[in-house]
Design brief:
Elements: E1 2-7, E2 12-19, E3 23-31, H1 33-37, H2 44-65, E4 73-81, H3 85-102, E5 106-110, H4 111-117, E6 130-135, E7 140-147, E8 150-156, H5 162-172, H6 179-187, H7 212-223, H8 229-258, E9 262-266, H9 273-285, E10 289-291, H10 302-314
Parallel strand pairs: 1-4, 4-5, 6-9, 9-10
Antiparallel strand pairs: 1-2, 2-3, 6-7, 7-8
The structure holds 5'-O-[(R)-(carboxyoxy)(hydroxy)phosphoryl]adenosine (KG4) and zinc ion (ZN).
């Protein structure tokens, strides 16, 4: 069966069509980054309005590119939360209205479950069970995944998410929004080991994270320099290295604690090359396997939502026609 997936939780309008046997058929993405860039961050009201403008044309485009028409679609999956309430409601209202008029089911998907299952779209998907590190702009979570829907939260960030820390550190260095990828690019020109940054919360037991101190450390370190381009690059490199190593230390701990040998890393920050390399090196030493989505499915997209929704519809989960969105939705409340 063909499932249409809709993602509108933040600043990306994503649409995809996934087939339960054939896999991903097509996906389309429209990014609002250029629009929000002017304001140095996401303006929620502008995000909602832009999703309204772009969503239906993207659905049309995705159907056309897939050489399918609406009668072929058996169900619609949409991101029901967490995210920006206005943006979520655009996706929810569109999905429910189309489902009603096409007389097919619609299913709300948890955005982080979408990220978590994104590596399933790859040629060599991970087998269950595994430990998942989810690192996005809004969340940093370590989850033990026994099967689809069986998630146990092992640890989370007590303050800033990893992506948020990247974006804030980038802003301090004068980079545009969202700064994560730009900071990473700058770090490539940086000299290693000039600055020694802390590895927050690694000196005590537990699997929670804290990144806000790292952001303050970045600010203090940068303000003590001459603020040349090389200084910026060196600070960026130290920040990135500290984040990567902190994530690796916690993942190693999570693998040990659960006794599992498979690690899945997903969410926008998992596109980061240094973080990927650091986690691969850690996993090698632990004789564990590590799985990432392809870079375009690390950040927000419709394909992961179509995939997650398809699994839920195959499990015969359904919901009423009432339009609902959950801006806050802990992943361990998922069934
Ligand atoms: O998963 P995502 O697209 O959206 C949320 O669900 O939040 O993640 C976006 C976050 C942003 O904070 C962005 O700066 C960060 O992922 N990001 C990166 C990289 N690519 C995206 N951070 C570091 N390095 C990257 N290459
Ligand atoms: Zn996301």
């Amino acid at each position: 069966m063909y499932i249409l997936g809709i993602e509108t939780s933040c600043d990306e309008t994503g649409v995809a069509i996934y087939h339960s046997d054939k896999g991903l058929i097509h996906h389309c993405l429209y990014s609002q980054i250029a629009m929000h860039n002017e304001y140095g961050g996401i303006v929620p009201e502008l995000a909602s309005r832009d999703h309204i403008r772009k969503l239906i044309p993207l659905i049309d485009e995705c159907l056309q590119q897939s050489q399918l028409n609406k009668q072929d679609i058996a169900g619609i999956a949409y991101t029901a939360g967490p995210g920006l309430i206005g943006a979520l409601l655009v996706g929810a209202a569109t999905a429910k209205s189309l489902a009603w008029s096409w007389d097919i089911p619609a299913i709300g998907v948890h955005h982080m479950e979408g990220h978590l299952l994104a590596p399933m779209l790859e040629e060599q998907p991970p087998a269950f069970p595994f430990v998942a590190l989810l690192v996005s702009g809004g969340h940093t979570l370590l989850v033990e995944v026994k099967s689809i829907g069986d998630y146990q939260l092992l640890g989370e960030s007590l303050d800033d998410a990893a992506g948020e820390a990247f974006d804030k550190a980038a802003k301090l260095l004068g980079l545009a929004y969202p700064g994560g990828p730009l900071l990473s690019k700058l770090a490539q020109k940086g000299q290693a080991n000039r600055f020694k940054f802390p590895r927050p919360m690694t000196d005590r037991p537990g699997l929670d994270f804290s990144f806000s101190g790292l952001k303050t450390f970045t600010m203090n370190t940068y303000h003590k320099t001459e603020k040349t381009e090389q200084d910026k690059a060196d600070v960026a490199r130290a920040f990135e290295q500290a984040t990567a190593e902190t994530l690796a230390i916690k993942c190693k701990r999570a693998l040990k604690q659960t006794g599992l040998k498979r690690l899945v890393v997903a969410g926008g920050v998992s596109a980061n090359t240094t973080i990927r390399q650091t986690l691969i090196a850690m996993a090698d030493k632990q004789r564990a396997e590590v799985f990432f989505p392809r870079p375009e499915f690390c950040t927000d997209n419709g394909a992961m939502i179509a995939y997650a929704g398809c699994q839920r519809l195959l499990a015969e989960q359904t919901e009423s026609l009432e339009i609902n969105a959950r801006p806050r939705w802990p992943i361990n409340e998922l069934l």
